[in-house]
What we know:
The complex is a heterodimer of chains A (538) and B (301). Chain A has helices at 49-54, 73-90, 100-108, 121-125, 134-148, 153-160, 168-177, 186-190, 197-212, 220-230, 238-256, 277-282, 284-296, 316-319, 321-338, 349-357, 374-382, 415-423, 454-462, 464-473, 491-504, 506-510, 517-523; strands spanning 271-274, 301-302, 342-345, 371-373, 398-400, 427-428, 484-487, 512-515.
Amino acid sequence: MTKKKKLTLNDISRNAEKRLTEINIDELIPLPPPYDKSEELPGIKPLTDDQKTRLVDNLDGFNALVLLKPQSKEEEDKFVRQFEAGLKKLLNKGDNWTFLQPLLLSLEHCVRCQTCSDACPVYVASGKQEIYRPTYRAEIFRRLINKFAKPGGKWLAKLKGADIKLNWATISRLYELAYRCTLCRRCAQTCPIGVDNGLITRELRKLFSQELGWAPKELHEKGTVLQLEVGSPTGLRPDVAKDNMEFIDEDFTESLGIKIKTNWDKQGADVLLLHSAGDILSFPESVIAFAIICDKAGISWTLSSDIPGYDGVNYGLFYDDIQLAKVATRHAQIAKKLKVKKIVMGECGHEHKALATVADRLLTGDLNIPRESFITFFEDIVFSGKIKFDPSKNNFPVTLHDPCNIVRNLGIVEPQRRILRYLCPQFREMIPHGVDNQCCGGGGGLSVMSDVNINDFKALIAGRMKLKQILEAFSDHPRPDVNKYLCAPCLNCKLQMRVIFDYYGVQEKSGIYIGGLAELIVNAMVDLKKPFITWGEE
Amino acid sequence: MSGLYWPVFIFTIVFVFIALMVYRVLKIIKMPVHLRWELAPIPHDKERYSHGGSYLEEHEWWRRKQPKAFFPIITYMAWEIFLMKGVWQHNRGLWPFSFTLHWGIYLVILSLFFHFINAMLLIGSVPAAVQDVFFSIASVVAVTGYCVGLFGVVGLILKRYLDKNYREYSSYSTYFKLLFLAAIFVSGIVAWALSNDFANALGVFTRDLFTVDSGITTTAAMGSHIIIIFLFILYLPFTDMVHFITKFFTHHSVRWDDSPQNEKMTAKLRDLINQPVTWSAPHVKSNRGNRWGDIVEKEND
């Protein structure tokens, strides 16, 4: 094997037609058996001839963004000029009051000590490919900001030896590279100075979105735009969502033998449950489990059929402040209209971060309605004595995945563990866990992005550390003869894990099933005569 | 350099340094309220810090005022500043050099403090035996600082140049900064080696400085050392080394800023939301000087 040339920062602006690096599966960190044979894996799907003709493919062989090749040099130059204008707007108080202080603090005080590198699951899993180092992208962006958005920048860049060319190669690669980070912020956690490369990456995405109008279609066009227009990025319109839920209610009523009915638009309810609509489609048992828990605990609750009140996702968090604010404001307006006492955020990590903390300073006046995590809401119910539990019903191996947005970003760590320690006799932790957890690999919006071959990146690299952790947590039962439960209380994490599990055949080879926290609570209820968790059986 | 040039040179630099640092800090403080972007663990949450938890772990957290502890913040910062805990935990290979460089700097700063004390003792005509004790302490602190700091800075220069993980991220300015620090330590060692009574000479120099004695003078070696130190102080505010101050803001104003919106903040936020937006992407609809709040609200009408 020929040794790879060491990638330099300036390579980003050279040879726009050529890939910056090539990923070799054999260079990735090894996985435990039976997942250690790379020749048995599907590999990395190559671009088709048509895709090669149409799309920009100059980064790493993965393609998430479907960026079309410009038709002329003039078009390239136009984008470059827009990018340069965007750099200046990021430092402008009016345009970027939302993150100006955190951004400047992170840009101006990094000492390039590389302490953050080994915290990055993408960088480490890739076998330390330079392109994925948290500081690679951040340092290029920092040098561009210093050069083009600060007084005397061009002169100083030369003097300091920190000059980066701004051209089509630079911006097209930076755009794709901005979506090789899961925004998990493990890097930020280790920085002795407090620099946040996750934030820098998000600001880079924001520049592309808010100035050039470039964003992954799954996040923007079919994400926030669709959500504000029809109600949900899933495309579920209110009437369809209600119909689906009616069908699911009937289905579970029949299979469980207990009456289940979803409440819609109940004025003055104590709680507005804000699920991800993706759960209705992909994990309906989660939505049903919430309904059962609330009903059994005697909670006055409702869902909303207003657009987008039945979908708590907010992809704006990943790439665009304006879209973030639009969605969060709409959620708050719906809660206000229903006159609920509080919003309970469902099993969706980024919904938590967007609504509980980030939007806290967007929702002023009577829009600032109390918002609580489903985790503390459930903990209160579980330990209130209102529902009787039999933990022996959950006597199978269970481990917990900590969604970054709930744990590292919000600091909700122990309540879910208290529930699991009480209800699951075979609960075991992953290592590391809690605020030191490994990202699922689908953070930062990657989970819902699936164009071209980005799923291969998600399965092979971004989610590799997580898969390793999961397998190690169940190493006492490696074979599929024992059903094992991976509790991942976040829709995006669950979707990402499905991608990983499908890629490697984890369910078949290891007998691990993915589910949420609500399902485990319901499964342990004494009142429920039939098992709620069915291990993939209808 | 001799006579009044010294106090003019040194006090001007001290003044400019303070002014620049105040400017940098004010620039940070005056930045607008930003959206929350905290990161666990947050030390001021005394009850839950040990496991990284926050007040959001509490059922209906808004019903109770959330206290903020002061002591864990001090402990956290002390571990970071004095022991480089983060680097120790996550970047062990760098720690010996980072730790010694920082301690070299701390000791040199401490020695400056002792030179000031010695100047006061000289002005106060304190008995020679007492002065000798303080001169000895100043000497030991300064020379230890130079040696330890030199070890650290040479280690860092070599690490940055030889280790591929660092080389690409080290610009001319990175090496310049480190060489400048090395110059402080080397010139200090030279001044000490060429002086019969290093601390005494610096004590006398400091005394003459503060009494603005026109006869102030020093040896070439000592003078060079002093000039290098003060030129470095002048250079410092233009570098990322101001992290000794800005670390406070990266932590308190961002990472640990978990304060829910309050009335004072609401007023500021309303002003910010009323600012015009100039982003050009079509979905932003910033044409005709639309304001932040309008853009968000209109979409939701």
